[in-house]
Amino acid sequence: MRACVWCGRQLQTTLTLAQIWQFTPIAQATVCDTCRQRFTAITSQHCPSCGRQQVDETVCLDCQRWSGDRLTNHAVYVYDSAMKAYMQQYKFQGDYALRVLMQAPLAAALQRETYDVLVPIPVDQLTWRTRGFNQVTGWLQNQPFQQALLVRATHKERPQSAKDRADRLRTPQPFTLAPNAGQLLRGQRVLLLDDVYTTGRTLRHAADQIYLGGAKAVTSLTLAR
Amino acid sequence: MQNDEDFFGRQLPLRGAPTNGAVGQHALRTVGERRQCQRCGQWLAVTDRLANGDWYCRQCLQLGRLTSQHELYTIPEPNRFVRVKSGGLTWTGQLSAQQNVAAQAVLRHVKTRTDHLLWAVTGAGKTEIVYPALAWALAQGWRVAWTSPRVDVCLELAPRLRQAFGGVAQALLYGGQADPYAYCPLTICTTHQLLRFKAAFDLIVVDEVDAFPLATSPMLQRAITNAQKPQGCHLLLTATPGNDLQQQVRRRQLAVTYVPLRYHGHLLPQIDLRLAWRWREGLLRNRLPSALIHQLRGYLAKHQRFLLFVPHVVDLPVIGQALQLAGIQGGVTVHAADPDRPAKVQAMRDETIPFLITTTILERGVTFPNIAVVILGGDDPVFSTAVLVQIAGRVGRSADFPSGQVTCYCHSHTKRVRLARGMIAHLNLQGRRQGGRP
């Protein structure tokens, strides 16, 4: 008997005859169905620019305000109360074990994207020491990725999540290219990977740097929007 | 954070050593191949590891994550309090004769520092019975914690204790509190918060000791012994001790004081058991047992307010709808995760709604005068013996309305219901010997 990593309830696994006859290792579930179904997946009706769930497929108001600076982002889940609760425990309380919850959905979402190089948004040195992990790379299992970006180790007086929209839009460029970024990125289609798309400021800063590194195209995928 | 008082009898996780000479130990102790969290005492799983190689404890994550980088700092409890002669007791109420006997017994055990169980029926006035012992302990300069697994109980208790012990500084600790920690002789906290303490308290009063999650959690049980000084003692309060506590009492390992009568001197209402064969199948067709419908219609006609307990949260809307169809209207449903829970319970208290349909969350800690209780599906495993006795204890708590009906509808006879009836009968037998009246 195993317990669900999130809610701690005992998992009821039913073993079928077919599974026994296959003579292959039986996949052990780590998350219960109730927890899995707490999130709301984004359907095909989303903003073509930022991936926000909508009732139609027109460019949303926030994206129109970004005039000209277009970025195509896809998101897997809606950033609702369940996702906030998940992020709170995973990222801010630092429960690294919760990464398994998102590994399968994210792998499926990466399958649907077309790209050559996967670049996750990095965390700075201080966060790496205190949090102990990068919340984005935690969701990757065997997918190859390149750390082409470095984040400047400036001391943040406030975390990004504590700012309002206007403050966040004024955030200066925090990223620089890694020393070997040129040969990694030249002429490649790059997919950026981040946890939450809120204003799009972070991803656009990152995309600017990736373009400077010589990439042909940059798109992005986030877990939540 | 460098304040000495913050470290007295506590375990504070820090990454660097503080300047005040507090003693530190590694937060995660390695024993052979395994690691043990020094705050909650649980063993780490081999997968509880961060990407940078550090280990972390998942069991007490809610109190702030402990990693192998952390050390826990403590200063041994010095009991640096101003002593108040009366123990700060400003309560002017009177204990009844039975309550007084129990209060003296509790005081005697606290004076000799023995662990003690106060087994008092629901509505006996447990809190007041402890006041004399608490006043004595505070007058000795003891550090005392009053703890409960339920945050609702702590929140309800804190203003009462603040009024009863006006002369003593008190701190209320629970997850998500607004006030910062304060070093006080009397600490009211949830059992989870005890994990932050180490050998701090001379006396720990554990209210509702059999309530979830304390009863099933070795981590929280260890937290109580860990937060208590080696020479300290604890006092357990409950109306429905679990099997292991009852066994300890039978083996004379734990001293016990019974209070089998309520403060108004009336006996507990017995659970009236009625069979409702295959009621779940009927519910699929939106039908409730006809006896239940008949009874509830009778309550509505008499303006008798009632609580309807059902086994699960998923049953609430279904049963609510079935009641609507049967013409029993005006009630609301309430469950643990309901954001409007306090408002709905308050509405019931204000007598603006005729009934509540609820799960086991209202089993303890709530008092409505003149209420009837109906349990549907009392044979479901969520209704343990203790839960059934507690639910029955909602009835007849007020001196003006000391009796009332408790009806339990079951698909079949179960041991739990039989034991619950047995426990009430046993307590009533003892109560009758002390002059209780029905």
| Helical residue percent band of chain B | 25-40%
Q: How do the helices and strands follow one another from N- to C-terminus of chain B?
A: EEEEEHEHEHEEEHEHEEHHEHEHEEHEH
Shape of chain B: globular
How many structural units, i.e. domains of chain A? 1
Tally of strands of chain A? 6
Largest sheet of chain A: 4 strands, parallel
Reported by name, the CATH topology of the largest domain in chain B is Rossmann fold
Physical arrangement of strands within the biggest beta sheet of chain B: 8-9-7-10-11-6-12
User: Can you identify the CATH superfamily of the largest domain in chain B?
Assistant: P-loop containing nucleotide triphosphate hydrolases
Helix tally of chain A? 9
Q: Give the N-terminus to C-terminus distance of chain B in angstroms.
A: 57 Å
Describe this structure in words.
The complex is a heterodimer of chains A (225) and B (438). Chain A is an alpha/beta fold. Chain A has one domain. Chain A is built from nine helices and six strands; from the N terminus they run αααβααβαβαβαβαβ. In chain A, the strands form two sheets. Chain A has a four-stranded parallel β-sheet. A two-stranded antiparallel sheet of chain A has the order 3-4. Chain A is globular, with a radius of gyration of 19 Å. The two termini of chain A are 35 Å apart. The relative contact order of chain A is 0.16. The model of chain A has no long low-confidence stretch (mean pLDDT 88). Chain B has 438 residues and is of the alpha/beta class. Chain B has three domains: 71 residues, no CATH class; 163 residues, Rossmann fold (3-Layer(aba) Sandwich), CATH 3.40.50; 163 residues, Rossmann fold, CATH 3.40.50. In chain B, strands 8-9-7-10-11-6-12 form a seven-stranded parallel β-sheet. Chain B starts with 11 loop residues before the first strand and ends in a 5-residue tail after the last helix. The mean pLDDT of chain B is 91. Classes of the chains: A alpha/beta (225), B alpha/beta (438). At the A-B interface, helix 6 of A face loops of B. Chain B: It comes from Levilactobacillus lanxiensis. Chain B: InterPro entries: DEAD/DEAH_box_helicase_dom, Helicase_ATP-bd, Helicase_C-like, P-loop_NTPase. Chain B: GO terms for molecular function: helicase activity.
